[in-house]
Amino acid sequence: MMGACDVIPGVSGGTIALITGIYERLIGAISAIDPGLLKHIVHGDLGAFRRDFEKIDPLFLVVLLAGIATAFLAMSGIILYLLGNHGVETYSFFLGLIIASAVVLFREIRSPRVADLVFLIIGTIAGFLLTGLGHLDAGHSLPMIFLTGMVALCAMILPGISGAYMTLVLNQYDFMLAALRSFAFPEIITFIVGGITGLLLFTKALKYLLKTYQTAMLAFLTGLMLGSARMLYEKAAVSGSILFDGGLFIIAGIAVIGMVEYVKRR
Fold first, then answer.
1. How many Cα atoms sit within 13 Å of 52 on the Cβ side?
2. Which residues touch 100 (CB under 8 Å, ≥6 apart)?
């Protein structure tokens, strides 16, 4: 379920982790990963290595990643077909997902303060400017794919923020779907290594920020989603008429997030 949602811009795998009750276990397992494990092997302290390795919850992560990878492979061909043959409908559906996700995320702030609204505005401006990267065409070099992996996998573990959407914002979405479909291992491995690097570097920081500055972070992330929705609107407009061809699909995207949120709250 997480893998299927992580392929679709707008639905966060982190949200699915919350719904299924594994989110805290996932964050705990990822934050327990420490390169210092290798020191125990070098020093021959296998007991300490085993204790620290068990904190990572390795069986849980392996099974979860296997499920995510299976969904990636199964969904990549479907999404590529929809983007190629039903562009305006697909991008309009994604737009509905993003708009509804932003509203749901901001509702997590029970009593918004002036500072939260400031962070919302800052995030919206940042998202709007970040969207311009899609027009600059940064190419599909391995360093760019590495950077995309870092950003996407960090976003993937945040409830309400879609890793696939960040890949779309960085103009790598179609390319990485095609790479998955054709088993282009250099690109796939680079993306995964970038993602693992990002998780190791930023998971602890994200965990700290969400715990210490929760409302400010939620407001900023909401603004980021709203501002970057500009790109989906532009892509849908290029593919056809949003009002006549995509209107119902925007509503459908909003309805999907509404149902996911209902299940999560239940």
1. 16
2. 253, 254, 256, 257, 258
- Whole-number Å distance between alpha carbons of 247 and 179: 31
Spell out the residues 6+ positions from residue 130 whose beta carbon is closer than 8 angstroms to its own: 169, 224, 227, 228
* Alpha carbons 227 and 240: distance in angstroms, whole number: 22
Amino acid at 123: G
Higher pLDDT, residue 138 or 167: 167
Q: Which of 5-14, 175-184, 207-216 has the highest mean pLDDT?
A: 175-184
Alpha helical stretches, state H, the chain: 2-7, 13-19, 23-31, 37-42, 46-55, 58-85, 87-107, 114-130, 133-136, 142-156, 163-169, 173-181, 185-212, 214-239, 247-265
pTM of the model: 0.69
Per-residue pLDDT, 159: 61
User: What is the spatial distance between Cα 123 and Cα 38, in angstroms, rounded to a whole number?
Assistant: 39
